Automatic annotation (TrEMBL):
InterPro entries: HotDog_dom_sf, THEM4/THEM5_acyl-CoA_thioest, Thioestr_dom. This is Acyl-coenzyme A thioesterase THEM4. It is a peripheral membrane protein. Keywords: Apoptosis, Cell membrane, Cell projection, Cytoplasm, Fatty acid metabolism, Hydrolase, Lipid metabolism, Membrane, Transit peptide. PANTHER family: ACYL-COENZYME A THIOESTERASE THEM4 (PTHR12418:SF19). It comes from Rhodococcus zopfii. It is an enzyme of class 3 (hydrolase). The lineage of its organism: Bacteria, Bacillati, Actinomycetota, Actinomycetes, Mycobacteriales. Residues 125-189 form the Thioesterase domain. It is found in: Cell projection, Ruffle membrane; Cytoplasm; Membrane.
Amino acid sequence: MTDVVSLYVNDGLPEEEIARQAALYGPLAEDIRALIPLGISSRADDDEIRRAREHLAAATEILERRRDSGPFGTRFNDAGHFRTWGNAAAGLRNAVAPPLEVHTDPDGRVWTDFHLHIGYEGPAGHTHGGVSALVLDQVLGDAARVGGSPGMTGTLTLRYRKPTPLGDLHAEAKLDRIEGRKAFVTGHIAGPDGICVEAEGIFIAPQWIADARAKFEAQD
Ligand SMILES: CCCCCCCCCCCC(=O)SCCNC(=O)CCNC(=O)[C@H](O)C(C)(C)COP(=O)(O)OP(=O)(O)OC[C@H]1O[C@@H](n2cnc3c(N)ncnc32)[C@H](O)[C@@H]1OP(=O)(O)O
């Protein structure tokens, strides 16, 4: 099993290098993401598909020449700039991610306006329920972190109130309370006609995080 702690790496990258990599690899993920709905909707003919696949094979051959092994993990530098570029919901380098760009209000509410293309379909013309769970897991988890209690999802409870359309959506979440290592968070996804999915989550700081925080506070 992958050791979670070993995937938290201070790689010491300077800010300029992080910005350079973001400007290089972010657009690559956008290009790959744009292919997903085309894979579903293209009406190209036999010859066009064959040619398109040859181009994709050539791109694959270039991209796999040099690559990291394993997941991206969580990387950071001495300035405390964290990168979770492989994250399935928000990762800058992950074409599977919508991606979510999560904002924080001064009162601790976190929110994101995001777009789900046709590759996120579940019920005909609507968002897959598991994708809604992905979005809410991320947004509620961010609210726990912003509220000072980052943790792993222990329990995520969803109420699907009405079908969630595809397209432009909004999600938000707020920390309700902290009890020991547990953060209780609520949130929802809304479409143009109001709230579609409500969520309650309990996020639990693993013991190693609680220990690290206690050690840090003892040094203060
Ligand atoms: C890393 C940084 C994040 C950073 C992550 C940022 C990513 C953003 C969001 C994405 C989040 C994810 O997808 S996370 C991936 C999905 N989640 C997971 O894979 C989690 C897998 N489960 C685990 O690793 C573990 O079960 C934990 C960490 C959740 C809990 O283990 P533990 O730390 O040993 O817990 P334990 O001592 O038994 O219990 C502590 C307290 O929590 C309660 N408790 C225990 N389990 C649960 C539970 N599932 N639901 C509710 N409550 C629970 C206990 O009753 C107890 O309450 P009391 O007696 O104290 O009252």
